[in-house]
Design a protein that fits this description.
The chain is an all-alpha fold. The protein has two helices and no strands. It has helices spanning about 1-40, 45-70. α1 runs antiparallel to α2. The protein is elongated, with a radius of gyration of 17 Å. The two termini are about 25 Å apart.
Length: about 70
Amino acid sequence: MNKSSEMDEMETKIELFSISRAYIVGVAGLGIIQLATIFYDINIEYLPVLLLAAMMITRTVNRLIIKRKMM
């Protein structure tokens, strides 16, 4: 009984680490987008589209990490 609860706890920690790693990737993507807007003079009106792209990248990475963990 005790071993299964320890395994569940470890799986939860691994899952939280995977999700946090995906959000770190998303934040890094936002940083790259911000640098691109500074250095390449991208119009600010494109910013919501770029933010949406960064969120989609975050979701995709998160799903890939979870799929890999399931395999």
